[in-house]
Design a protein that fits this description.
With 170 residues, the protein is an alpha+beta fold. The protein has a single domain (2-163), classed as Nucleoside diphosphate kinase-like domain (Alpha-Beta Plaits, 2-Layer Sandwich), CATH 3.30.70.141. Helices cover 48% and strands 15% of the residues. It contains 10 helices and 4 strands. It has helices spanning 10-15, 18-27, 42-52, 55-59, 61-71, 86-94, 107-111, 116-122, 136-146, 158-163, and strands spanning 2-8, 31-38, 76-83, 130-132. The protein has a 4-stranded antiparallel β-sheet with strand order 2-3-1-4. α3 packs antiparallel against α9. The longest helix is centred in the first third of the chain and has 11 residues, at 42-52. The two termini are 33 Å apart.
Length: 170
Amino acid sequence: MEQTLVVFKPDAVMRGIVGEILTRFERAGFKVIGMKMVQPDYEHFHGHYEGIGTLKTRKGAEIFESQLAAMQVGPVIAMVLEGVESVEFVRKMVGDTQPKTALPGTIRGDYAHVTYGQASSAGFGVANLVHASATAEEAEKEIAHWFSESELFAYETVHEFFTQPRKKAK
């Protein structure tokens, strides 16, 4: 099974819609194998967005700094989801990075409406609710950046438990 990182950004936490969004992932069949609320510092986000995601290299210092500022306005909830081709499916569920162009039915399309222009004029990163790993390679690095091995759990869901052949007790 593939694993991916999802981070509920401060705007999702502050709006009180984390549970509603998490429910969408669970209903799609993804298993939560790690979750925690944290308020990382600048260095942690720098490692995430530039060390792994190369945001500053790709989009420039202004966008990078505004994104890091937006991520530090409150706590975030980081989680690791596990499932079949989870990186691709979660990205599809999340929708386009800019909420304005995210399709209805996606998380960003249903719950956010800001544009890059609006965020830029406010001098802030775009409030788009969640971060989701873009590739399997990125997911592996991001998970290691946010979680230790002891914070990730292997378990069977109730469906897995009751559909697996079991040895009969004597």
